[in-house]
Amino acid sequence: MEQLMAAYVLVDVEITNQEAYEKYREVAYPVINAFGGKYLVRGGATEVIEGDWSFDRLIIVEFESVERARQWYYSPEYRPAIDVIEKYARRKLAIVEGVAE
């Protein structure tokens, strides 16, 4: 039986309107949870040791698989959150296959 690899959604977000960003959180968090997403990093201090990375706010969410992460992102339930975030933040988002335990 093939073992699924965990997946991590990496998000670098620059919030342009903090009050409106709270609306995104209200819409997005329940959907992320419903798809089995688990926050591993949600903001906090970032220390760059090598390179010229620049993060405004780094978020890492773990899903059971890449497929599950895609289902979440492209779901009709998450679409309203995307509509909100596109207006009040700039972000980069990637899904990365991880290591299964």
Automatic annotation (TrEMBL):
Name the record gives this protein: DUF1330 domain-containing protein
Family annotation (Pfam families): DUF1330
Positions of the DUF1330 domain: 7-99
Alphabetically ordered keywords of this record: Plasmid
Keyword Repeat: no
Gene3D superfamilies linked to this entry: 3.30.70.100
